[in-house]
Amino acid sequence: MSAYLQDIEHFTQLLKSRHTWGAIDPEYAARMKAQNQFKTGLDIARYTAAIMRRDMEEYDADSSAYTQSLGCWHGFIGQQKLISIKKHHGSTAKRYLYLSGWMIAALRSEFGPLPDQSMHEKTSVPALIEELYTFLRQADARELGGLYRQLDDARASGDTAKAASLENQIDNFETHVVPIIADIDAGFGNEEATYLLAKKMIEAGACAIQIENQVSDEKQCGHQDGKVTVPHADFLAKINAVRYAFLELGVEDGVIVARTDSLGAGLTKQIAVTNEPGDLGDKYNSFLDGDYIESAADIQNGDVVVKANGKLLKPKRLQSGLFQFKKGSGEDRVVLDCITSLQNGADLLWIETEKPHIGQIAGMVQRIREAVPNAKLVYNNSPSFNWTLNFRQQVFDAWQAEGKDLSGFDRASLMSAEYDSTELAQEADAKIRSFQADAAREAGIFHHLITLPTYHTAALSTDNLAKGYFGDEGMLAYVQGVQRKEIREGIACVKHQNMAGSDMGDDHKEYFSGDAALKASGKDNTMNQFG
């Protein structure tokens, strides 16, 4: 007997012992149970954490089994993304959601649009996680509701084969609920604040939390200047805080993504505590820029002096009170950060880079894997990169090294549309197309994400509509540019009443009120125009 039929039988037997529940239909109860597979956010976190752990093992065995996600700033956007994935690709396997702190700051703060500097309300982070999963669970209920209606029609027409097929589809239904990698920034405070926020995020459904090694109250976007890192001991305390939150809540497979901004961060707020030469604090301090001194006479009022490499070092300190790192030390600091994080509880790495260059990423990962052989990355395929220019310049440089004639190209102007039809541009586009697969194979990238793509798609589509609608095209701008495409491309949202839950509401009204139910889906519903 199928699981669906077993649930019907269970409720049938239950209702026999509840004499006052005669109006309850056991099949309707089974349907509502199936439409709500996940009762709490912790159920979701445990389910999705297991998915991530399995995916990580599969990637270790085969680098072509990498995973992907897009950043979504609203539950509806996440829902439509997963509906699209199921429609076009048949399965949600290895497709996740990314929750971007940048997009929360820019789009979800009560202060209005903010820069990515941890100034938005920390409560908005778990709130968006909960919102995303609310919409994904509704996508489950909507799709199953459609199957139930088809099942009723098949039974009514006596088509037992089709009815059996639909029962099988219900039993093997694939949920829209997938893992979320959620951005906790630098923890929004000290390690206790990090723990408290992590708990709220996990309770909302997060199975993977990404945390960065910047100073919490100096946090900057990873692709902006002015980043300030913290000593390893401070960062590891926050990793521990997140792990304790996972364990306390029973999400033992919870995933921690340790992000390092050291490649682009030239500053630190504090000198690390060190107890003996060569310890972690001493290694951190060894990157400080400064001057070795011989005597107290070389110390000015307010100077700080540390012992490093057996000598007295006077680190360079800015007017802000921050200390500088040595120029060119970024990559070495990244490698140390990553090894340290993995050896102290992190599961995945995130290296924030200034360009999407596989060779650069692979060089760092190879060094990390000398200490941690199965090290793997979450990588930001960031909209902050000019992908077209970057890859055209990479091809230009490779061709130049091969001695090809490049007299027809201006390297600094390769973004120009005049180059679009050239062989160089075509090769660059081919490299962009295969970037994720190539980087997964060559640079240890397990998960590819784009932090804020739907921010840009919303802006672009709105611009196209506004340009035409308020111009000569008028209503044709919407009809031709939006609705006609929705109909012909099978976008479920063309029936927006259905997507918003109208049909589900009708189903429930029938469950609750029987023939007395006042439904919205009758002959006068204009959604019927869409078939």
Would you write up a description of this structure?
This protein is of the alpha/beta class and 531 residues long. It contains 19 helices and 14 strands. α6 runs antiparallel to α7, α11 (330-342) packs across α12 and α13 crosses α14 (423-433). The mean pLDDT is 92. Mg(2+) binds at residue 183. Pfam families: ICL. It catalyses: D-threo-isocitrate = glyoxylate + succinate. Keywords: Lyase, Magnesium, Metal-binding.
Strand order within the widest beta sheet: 1-2-3-4-6-12-13-14
The number of distinct helices, counting runs of at least 4 residues, comes to 19
Q: Are there runs of 5+ residues with pLDDT below 50, and where?
A: none
Oligomer: single chain
Number of strands: 14
Report the sheet-strand fraction: 5-15%
Terminal CA distance: 34 Å
For the largest beta-sheet, the strand count, sense and barrel status come to:
8 strands, parallel, barrel
The Cα radius of gyration reads: 28 Å
InterPro entries: ICL/PEPM (IPR039556), Isocitrate_lyase (IPR006254), Pyrv/PenolPyrv_kinase-like_dom (IPR015813), Pyrv_kinase-like_dom_sf (IPR040442)
Active site: 221 (proton acceptor)
Binding site for Mg(2+): 183
Cofactor: Mg(2+)
